[in-house]
Amino acid sequence: MIRRKLVLQLVSPGCTLCCVVANMAAGGDSKAVTSRVEAFKTQLTMDTPEIPDKSKITAMSFVGMLCQVQLRRCIPFHSLLTTTHHIASLCFLYTADSTLFLGLATGDVVSYSVKAKDAKEGGSGGSGGAAGAAGGFGAESLSLLVKKKIGNKKPIQQMEVVRDQQTLYILCDGKLSAHDTAQLQKKADMIDCSSAHLFCVEEKPPYHICVSHKSKRQLFLYEYNRSMQRYQLLKELAVPDTVLALSWRGHQLVVGYKREYSMLNVVTGEVTDVPVPLDGSNVLPCIQITSDREMLLASSSDLAIFMNFKGEPVQKNTIHWSKSPIAKMAICSHYVCGLLPNSVEVASLLEQKIVQSFPFAKGISLVADDKKVIVASESKVMTLFLTSILDQVKQYLSAGFVDEALALLNKTAPSTKSLHDFHAEAGFVCLKNMQFDASTKHFVASNVDPRDVLSVFPDLQLKGMSVWILIANPFVRLFVRSCR
Questions:
Q1: Among 106, 78, 109, which Cα is nearest to 93's?
Q2: Cα(108)–Cα(148) distance, rounded to whole angstroms?
Q3: Contacts of 84 (CB under 8 A, 6+ apart)
Q4: What are phi and psi of 397, to 5 degrees?
Q5: Residue 4 pLDDT greater than 70, yes or no
Q6: CA 33 to CA 7: how far, in whole Å?
Q7: Domain with CATH 2.130.10.10 in the chain
Q8: What is the pTM of this model?
Q9: What CATH number belongs to 77-392?
């Protein structure tokens, strides 16, 4: 049978998606092929019900069918420890064999060794402890290390760890003391401080300590003297009101008062007002540093607002917690966890939306690293295990965060097949979001079957034709032939 070849080039606005080459049987209608290609072009460039506006898409399957998906159980949780201790504060030292410190209402500090059992990354990421174990973070063993009396039947007010120093700073009954993290032995006269009610420690050298006194409108800045192996008072900084929240970032202190926030440069003494309102009654200040450029501040009602370190709002949505006040916030990977009166809520830093909530009555403190969050009440400690990276990749990809998903996938040293599969799915996500140039790049990097591409556009499929693909940068070429 004599065959002839018809070559058609399709370049729609903003799209160099593909060249279509059709091998038609003798007597084939070239006008019909041209008509279908024009329909393809029209469908790509128009906002039709088949290709919704990207702002309306929450998730989609790679075969082109829309499906609404909520990011539920993205951080499944699992009970770590139930204790008869009357807990007053919580602290965590993140190492290969991590140490959990519990500050008790009796003035004691108890330390537990938390050892993770070996487990490969890539669990299912479902709800409950089993999923966490599959992901490598749910199987952990606990053993009591040390119990040390710090105060005379006074509750432990606050604890902070400086990992490089292997030092645990403990505030109890207004006195700040320094202890080694192994045996909780007091480091003799390391710091002379009394009548304190709040402090924060610089995590990098020279490890300054800032201490607030409840009865004084002053902040006391201490500097570590290596030769004397103790802290010495460096300077006093005047503040307008009683300090209720403190956080350290570089040369700046972020300070929360009853009705406002400010930033204080510890070198120059310069004060920068931060325009985040507080009502002074129900809502207390709460500060969480989210990156080198941004921080998250609790505001009036149920809001948390992103600000930069110039005291200016960041171009992001506010986070709406379900209730107020927020007692504490902590960062775990791309999530921020908030401790509410009777629950813990998880918000995505990418979407600025609540993605998970679970009940936890009378929580008093929570801490986090990049793999888990630990939250405590007066009688119980629980941990939230982050799902495996591969499950997070799927969640980010289905929500349209392709670059973030690829960055996470690259952390797992993916195989060639995994990368091909990822780029194929990413190509369809970008295609549905009208990101044609991006979809082309992903299709070129994948081993996608062109029939899957054509299945997104039912009107383009030619009756009696089969389709296969040949990839050549920068175009994807689709070949159509007779399938007699």
A1: 109
A2: 5
A3: 379
A4: -65, -45
A5: no
A6: 10
A7: 77-392
A8: 0.68
A9: 2.130.10.10
